[in-house]
What we know:
The structure is a homotrimer.
Chain A: E1 7-8, E2 14-30, E3 40-55, E4 58-65, E5 72-84, E6 87-95, H1 102-105, H2 118-122, E7 132-139, E8 143-150, E9 164-176, E10 180-192, E11 199-200, E12 221-222, E13 224-238, E14 241-254, E15 260-272, E16 280-281, E17 286-287, E18 303-314, E19 323-334, E20 339-352, E21 359-373
Antiparallel strand pairs in A: 1-2, 2-3, 2-21, 3-4, 4-5, 5-6, 6-7, 7-8, 8-9, 9-10, 10-13, 11-12, 13-14, 14-15, 15-18, 16-17, 18-19, 19-20, 20-21
Amino acid sequence: TRGGPEFRSTDGFFTFHPRGRLGFDYSTTHGSSYDDRNIAGTEAEALRLGAEGNIGAMGYKLDVDFVDGTTAVKDAYLSWDTRMFSLPVEFYLGNHLKDRSIEGSSTESRLPFMERNAVASVGAGVNGYYGLGGMVRVYGKNWHIGASITGDDLDNEGTANDSVMYAIRGTYAPIKTANGFVHLGAWYYYENLANDVTSINNVPRIAQHFNDNLRVSSSSISNPTQDEAYGYELGGAYHSFWSFAEYTKRTIDSADTDVSDRTGKSWSAGWLITGEKPGFSTRSGIWGTTKVLRPVTSGGIGAFEVAVRLDRYDFRDLPNGGTGRSTTVGVNWYLNDWARVMLDYVDWTTDNKVGSYKGLDDGNSIGLRALLSF
Amino acid sequence: TRGGPEFRSTDGFFTFHPRGRLGFDYSTTHGSSYDDRNIAGTEAEALRLGAEGNIGAMGYKLDVDFVDGTTAVKDAYLSWDTRMFSLPVEFYLGNHLKDRSIEGSSTESRLPFMERNAVASVGAGVNGYYGLGGMVRVYGKNWHIGASITGDDLDNEGTANDSVMYAIRGTYAPIKTANGFVHLGAWYYYENLANDVTSINNVPRIAQHFNDNLRVSSSSISNPTQDEAYGYELGGAYHSFWSFAEYTKRTIDSADTDVSDRTGKSWSAGWLITGEKPGFSTRSGIWGTTKVLRPVTSGGIGAFEVAVRLDRYDFRDLPNGGTGRSTTVGVNWYLNDWARVMLDYVDWTTDNKVGSYKGLDDGNSIGLRALLSF
Amino acid sequence: TRGGPEFRSTDGFFTFHPRGRLGFDYSTTHGSSYDDRNIAGTEAEALRLGAEGNIGAMGYKLDVDFVDGTTAVKDAYLSWDTRMFSLPVEFYLGNHLKDRSIEGSSTESRLPFMERNAVASVGAGVNGYYGLGGMVRVYGKNWHIGASITGDDLDNEGTANDSVMYAIRGTYAPIKTANGFVHLGAWYYYENLANDVTSINNVPRIAQHFNDNLRVSSSSISNPTQDEAYGYELGGAYHSFWSFAEYTKRTIDSADTDVSDRTGKSWSAGWLITGEKPGFSTRSGIWGTTKVLRPVTSGGIGAFEVAVRLDRYDFRDLPNGGTGRSTTVGVNWYLNDWARVMLDYVDWTTDNKVGSYKGLDDGNSIGLRALLSF
């Protein structure tokens, strides 16, 4: 039932699912006062091979991405499914997307837009979206709690102590019916930074991934000692309509400068014109598969969705911190449950105090993506 | 029916084919006046994992090569099969071998020699054999046309505009019977080079891939603005005999120097002693699988082929351009449809004007390859 | 019957086995006089994807590891199974673990400890555990001989001659019954070093892989010309008990300094408390799969093993050579035939004459590993 085959032993004890993802982008930017920002080009967004499977209650997953001639390990974990106090519990060991905000916890290929929102990028810790460690998820009927303790990324060197992040997130669906749901969520993490983290220089992209010059900038923070962030989530769906709002504030302590804050906000809404339901999992609070009613590969027209998102980046708590805001209008054509074509129009404004693109600058970027993920 | 299994859903809607390639080379060179050219050693030529499959009319392929401790993405595309004007049409999006010359369009593991010919290497554009973009192929009964628009390679950086190549190739088989065929082909591309292409320094190898010092050299061309190339193909097969001739001329414009030309010529012929037919696809104009009549893995003797190739490299249109010529005699032992052992004897001459190996120099290189590809 | 599925054509002619390995480590060190040695952290030990299969008598295997954001090809070979003089013979071409000492010849995921022993690391040649070339193994009823000729590693550059290693190993089981066995083994290699090997700087780790600062050091040997090593193996098993002793001496010739020796010794013993037999293959003289009687994934308690190992490193034949000794106590919990949790306590002492950690220094390292391998 998946795009890549899923193999099962007769008794269902063994399963094996080869995984693949191919994503190709075209991006073009106009209107910036800086020529180097008005660039266009193609790019592979994802080129992944992997494997996923189960041996009884034990599971495993390994995804490796090969874009840009490099090797980037994404999900790479062992898992164990069990029940405690009659609740389903999942344990993960390894590299797993952290439970942190809606779009930070969701795999990028399931999001309704080409890029993650401001909350996912501004609220990210030094250890990023992944981090090697342990995670547990407990599920109730209409809620879940996910907690993790993670060390450095997979590629850290063994010459110093790891930074350690303690993270927790809870989601709750007070209303959950056949016609829709209401989603509430909150999350928090604390990160104790090791000596080998000599600076924090988080400059999130504001339009398509292709364009490295479109970023909200801020001076690098030297000798950071610890940081923490929290966030809120509110949203819901009714039939084919959906909307979500997210907020985050990240606070960074440094041995050299004052404590500083950074905030990100995001609001989005969408409509599946062809009648599908939003592929949002109320159980885990993440974006999942959009089940297409009339797949193109079966002679149908596929699913069409229009969506809009507003993002706000605010780094002004530091003297050299910039701001950014963007409005994204997206049209998605889901060919089937595994393939989609995405068109994103992003109207963006940055007001940077440092870097190559200082001062108020605005423009628009158009992105086109073809994506297959199984 | 393939060396790696091909899995199909009962209705044939889903297919999945794990792919692999392993190639190991030994190469030794003698007779050069330069000690550094007379080197010997072993090398992995290909170490690939990948996946290929279909979801109805939609297809995908992803091949990654891991030789030399690096990651090189080869074929990586989404495809769509359809019919237009009652002709079969294939659309490709992503990274696909360009339709350019016989040996440039063929996957290396299907060629009758260990390395591609002079036409493939001299006629290659800045974006190389691959290039991220779109391709379409239309097939008639005895012809095909392939056209593509491609941007930079997969690993380009998003800080500048892409170079863009417009390429087209057509092949035609005026005679096509059970006993043989005649093949005609022609191709052309125009490449508009972006600012980040600051020089062209194409110095093709003239013997086995292992030996980095055996090259036809030329001074680097600074600030190239555009280039174009065309080529012709003529060949055919009769029973177990085959022969092909190819020619290419590439023209490079530069802001700094005069327009300059480079030409490559190649002629080859072969005989499958054990009676197999050449694995050449008249439909696509590329080398495909040699179907072995008596596979070694089924107790037979395999297929034996002897082949010869002449290659000419001419870069003399530029003051510092060298020339090269080589004669290759090859013996191929096809163990079955997926595995082969290749022995290539290359008698080469280079006359370089620049680089570490100036002046008339000649020698011979012997290469041995064991290859499995599924 | 494997954790990853093994697919077979109906007649058994084709087989295909997707491979995967995930290993995650936690390591912490205390007691060293040097703060930089007392570090703790997490690390991925193995993140592998691969494929293995057969086309009749022809086999292939390709394993690629993606730890630390890099690409490391491990096993990558073509093989052929046949009989000569009515004995089973296996030919390998490509990258294969050399037949050299018990723990050097065994894949790391099958060893009873987290790291290979002193004999494996001290006796390794410049070309390491792997090496591109040809290998043959002949099997008798209770013995085997393995011989190989290998060139440089897979990632060597083609600008110089390869170093070439000639290696041989034989094992013999004079006693081999249902209750146990006695194992005898010996091995030797000679390595002719090419000009591009300008120094030998072998500084083996003495505790967990994570800690790069815990090494036995020695001055680099410049301009080495050749080296050789030999080793002895003695061991056996009785019911659930096993014990092995190994010894090696490596001799390095240099154009600059005197011939120098390095020795390594190792003794280990273990007990599978839950009654399993040691997963040692008397046929090949390597560690294989421990067959778990009561797998956790089938509701059992798994297999438990306690083991101890003593290692000695002696580089004192050179003026600046250090010494090291370690005692490892390990507890292994085998969840099933593919997954295990390992706890290693290592009490170590180094006496280095060069490097950042000179003089007598001791401490202890605790390592924890979760490992899945199929």
